[in-house]
Amino acid sequence: MKFLIPSILIALGIFIGVVYVVPQYEALTVRLADREEFSLSQEKIQETQQKYEEAIQWKDTIKQSDIRRLSEILPADFNNVQLLLDITNLAGTHGITLGPVITDTPIMKGGYVIHPLAFSFDAEYSSDAKEFMVDLEQSLTMFDVIDMTVVKKADTDVLTYTLTIYTYALH
User: Fold this and answer.
1) How many Cβ atoms from other residues are within 10 Å of residue 6's Cβ?
2) Is 98 helix (H, G, I), strand (E, B) or coil?
3) Where are the domains of the chain?
4) Whose CA is closest to 123, among 79, 161, 163, 83?
């Protein structure tokens, strides 16, 4: 009997700890993690708001004359489907088939928007690729070649070209 009551109390303490305290503790740790995530989200919102306000202030500093000059050379909107069709048709005239085309999220810059685009193709430099690049350069679409990689395929004269270009439109 001497050991029965302390044993029952110890068992009851363990039972209450497992049934009540452990789930409460786990719920509390989840809430604390949620609070930290919420706190980080609030910080990100404040940073984004600050960047937005800075962008608005920077946009207001652009002169109207500069915006008018940009509007003369940049399209008012961007049609990525038409651009892809133009590049595909241009490549087709040289017997080149484009590989996968990757478009990225547009980048806002002051009064204009940059539209990143990446594509690849296989061709021999001496004829197809060189002529295609010249025609691409002389096309009416304004773009900048940001990155270009060339990899030689094994045991052939065929090269794999990968181009990343930026095209522009008004904001």
Assistant:
1) 9
2) strand
3) 1-61, 68-170
4) 161
The pair of structure tokens assigned to 39 is 């706190």
Residue ranges of the chain with per-residue pLDDT less than 70: 1, 70-76, 171
> Residue for token digits 């069709």?
85
Q: How far apart are CA 118 and CA 102, in angstroms?
A: 5
Instruction: Give how far Cα 138 sits from Cα of 49, 77, 133, 143, Å.
Output: 41, 21, 9, 11
Dig out the tokens for 44 from the structure: 């990100």
Residue with tokens 């590049």: 87
Residue 156 DSSP label: S
Name the percent of the chain lying above pLDDT 70.
Answer: 94
pTM greater than the 0.85 cutoff? no
**Nearest one of 98, 97, 115 to 106, comparing CA atoms:** 115
User: In angstroms, rounded to a whole number, what is the distance separating the alpha carbons of residues 81 and 89?
Assistant: 12
DSSP state of 171: -
DSSP string, 47-87: HHHHHHHHHHHHHHTS-HHHHHHHHHHS-SS--HHHHHHHH
Q: What CATH number is given for 68-170 in this structure?
A: 3.30.70.60
